[in-house]
Amino acid sequence: DDAAGQAAFDAIIAQDSRIEPRDWMPEGYRKTLVRQVSQHAHSEIIGMQPEANWITRAPSLKRKAILMAKVQDEAGHGLYLYSAAETLGTPRDKMTEDLIAGKARYSSIFNYPTRTWADMGAIGWLVDGAAIANQVPLCRASYGPYGRAMVRICKEESFHQRQGFEILLELASGTEAQKQMAQDSINRWYAPALMMFGPPDDDSPNSRQSMAWNIKRFSNDELRQRFVGMIYEQVKVLGLTLPDDQIRFNEETGKWEHGPLDWNEFKEVLAGRGPCNAQRLARRREAHEDGAWVREAAAAYAAKQARKTE
Ligand code: 3HC
Questions:
Q1: N or C, which end of the chain is more exposed by having fewer CB within 10 Å?
Q2: What is the pLDDT of residues 192-226, one digit of tens each?
Q3: How far does CA 271 lie from the centroid of its chain?
Q4: In ligand 1, which atom is closest to the CA atom of 207?
Q5: Complex prediction ipTM
């Protein structure tokens, strides 16, 4: 019954152990996991679009092959995470319908345009770098299927981050125009990448409960400042700069500090009024409609197979 279930759940959380799909769990725990895991899955799927924009225009066969592999990885991450969300009792069709109807959130970062080839570098280095900073702690999330999905996803993300850094390194050591293109891209992607970590802690309604349930291990600001410290060092290797002259390490607090972020822009993007929100949803809707015949054929085939075994 619920009292025994709640006691067992509380004990598992207190021991920092894993909750598995068949364990009793409070409705709020299930709800916040469906919310976060489905949004994470949507982010991976929508995140394919900004990069796909450059697959046909990659500067070499090598770069084209690497970018295709990365975008295919993102698709796999999305399917992995939809499967994790399904273990919580949410049908995949429902999650897809919500996304297509514009009722589901996905990461703010994918509502920005990819204007130049250098953006493939900045996305790999900054966006996948931020995703790694956020996802490594999620490998220890208390919900088993989510934490385990993160382990494999993080391994692939490190390839994504490295290939992005290498693109920027090549451009930064190329012609003056290539170096400028890389710097311009970092200038455009730096702040949106920092906002991927979520709103400031004092404006993060889900954090307290999510941390109490060992889903979120570190606060939004904690992970954001760690990430700033990482890229502050890495950008020196590129011989380029970050568009923020207020970055400094505060010896007393032991935290990195950075310039202000535009949380109004963040709220606009979350409200669906970012630079690319409409186009991202339209493209996702179109892909779903174009794929209807595949789903119908697969369902008809499965039904035929099932009749054979009756
Ligand atoms: N984009 C869109 N919505 C965001 C957001 C962002 N960057 N950051 C926060 N939000 C939303 C939250 O979903 C919440 O809204 P909701 O209650 O309607 O869901 C609201 O803003 C308040 O934020 P909170 O801090 O209270 O919410 P959370 O506790 O859920 O923290 C989070 C936000 C840190 C993003 C957390 O949800 C999380 O860790 N999610 C998993 C990570 C994820 O989604 N990563 C996607 C990155 S892209 C990616 O991985 C692809 C890469 O391979 C390129």
A1: C
A2: 999 999 999 999 999 999 999 999 999 999 999 99
A3: 18
A4: 29
A5: 0.97
